[in-house]
Amino acid sequence: MYKAKTRCFLYLRRRKAMSHLCKTVWVVLSLLIIAAGSPVAAFAGPTAPPVRAESGVPGDSTAHLKKEIDGILSRDFLPATTAGIKVVSLTHGDTIYEFNPRLLLVPASTQKVFTAAAALSVLGPEREVATTVVLDAAAARIYLKGCGDSLLSAADLTALASAAAQKMGKGKEYALAADLSCFDDLYRGMGWMWDDDEMMISPLSVNHNAVSVLVQPGPKAGAPAVVSAEPRTPYYTLENLARTGSAGDTNSIQASRRPGERENVVTVTGAIASGSSPVVRQASVWRPELMALALFRDALRAQGIKVTTMTTAPAPVGATEVARTSRRLEELVRFALKTSDNVTAESLLKLLGLHATGKPGSAEAGSVVVRGYLAKQGIAKGNVVVADGSGLSRYNLSSAETMIQTLRAIYRDPLLYRVFQESLPVAGKDGTLKNRMKGSCAEGKVRGKTGNMKGLSSLAGYATSADGEPLAFSIMIQNYAVFGGQAREFQDRIAKLLCGFRRTK
């Protein structure tokens, strides 16, 4: 009888313990289920966020916006693709949407935001970037000194030659040298791919360091295309392999210098449809400073100045300046951002290095200045990698949150913000956003910097909501195998949602 009572007691105790364990497990499972539906869990990694029920907040437009973006992201990209997104209000200060905001990704050309902001802040928008002509004491050699004006043109060189010729003897012979002492001698950036040879970085630039090739159809289908190029100089050779296609054919014209090729042979290939409008293509040249020097030499000769040899050498101390042309830094920043010009962005980075060290500007020294600027905005060293100024390097790393911190800092500086936001492409209007978001509420209300490389796409900038509220946003999409246009369409759809956003419905 005693043993039976004992077994009964033990059985009841085990049942009680099992009941307590079941309740504990049920509580834990319930908490996990709740957490899985929360924004924190949904944004913890590159898995598709659930489409959350919005019961209880039917008038909350922020919740509706989150649901819309989550849905687009889940349907079109996740879980295979990586994304980092953040949207904040610049007046209320709250976060309107975020997904993987701290995830480090390759920013592509949105890297230019960091370069431009640092250049405007450290150097100032009024900073003059000059190209000068100087004569040595013996007046036997003339020097053309470039210092980062990436917008220098053949016309500028002609004007410099005209001004310099007034102070030179026409019966005297001169040697000509390019002074490249403002920058180091590295033509390419750290981490650039072997075939990223479309542009060379030099303190003495001309025509964006490229040949502009104009291609027109021939008299009939099958005939060679008609090809010409600017600037006109024997420094490069134009090889025309392009043909005239039938009317209505798709144009397939390309112009390029083979990566690594140093003979400056620009080859034009493909077909242009009969009756088609002219097509313009760009091809880089090797050692662009020598093309600038050749154009300057020819312009001097046209002024009656005898020029014998050409070389590169720094101007000696005591040389006399005889001509100058310059541009303000804000003009260079505007061109870099509007057109996403790599040469200009890299020149700005090296100008920062020159300013900081007093030595030939380098990307390494310039990157230190950019990181210093970002540190002042509260961005930790581990949250950004600055490898170059243009974003061409895949060594660059940033996050949506880092970009937002930078955009917010720019917004809070009235002078900096005025120049910066005027330099950004405007949706449906100009720059790299000219043909995007046309006819939508975002047209004219979104200003953003684009960034595109194979397998990744970014857009960052400012938007104005339907209530007139200023917003900052950053959208980074990476590791996708689909056509890049899908990623850009996703960015545009988010931008449109932001412009239609109201605090309450």
Automatic annotation (TrEMBL):
<keyword id="KW-0378">Hydrolase</keyword>
<dbReference type="InterPro" id="IPR000667">
    <property type="entry name" value="Peptidase_S13"/>
</dbReference>
<protein>
    <submittedName>
        <fullName>D-alanyl-D-alanine carboxypeptidase</fullName>
    </submittedName>
</protein>
<dbReference type="InterPro" id="IPR012338">
    <property type="entry name" value="Beta-lactam/transpept-like"/>
</dbReference>
<comment type="similarity">
    <text>Belongs to the peptidase S13 family.</text>
</comment>
<keyword id="KW-0121">Carboxypeptidase</keyword>
<dbReference type="GO" id="GO:0004180">
    <property type="term" value="F:carboxypeptidase activity"/>
</dbReference>
<dbReference type="Pfam" id="PF02113">
    <property type="entry name" value="Peptidase_S13"/>
</dbReference>
<feature type="signal peptide">
    <location>
        <begin position="1"/>
        <end position="44"/>
    </location>
</feature>
<keyword id="KW-0645">Protease</keyword>
<keyword id="KW-0732">Signal</keyword>
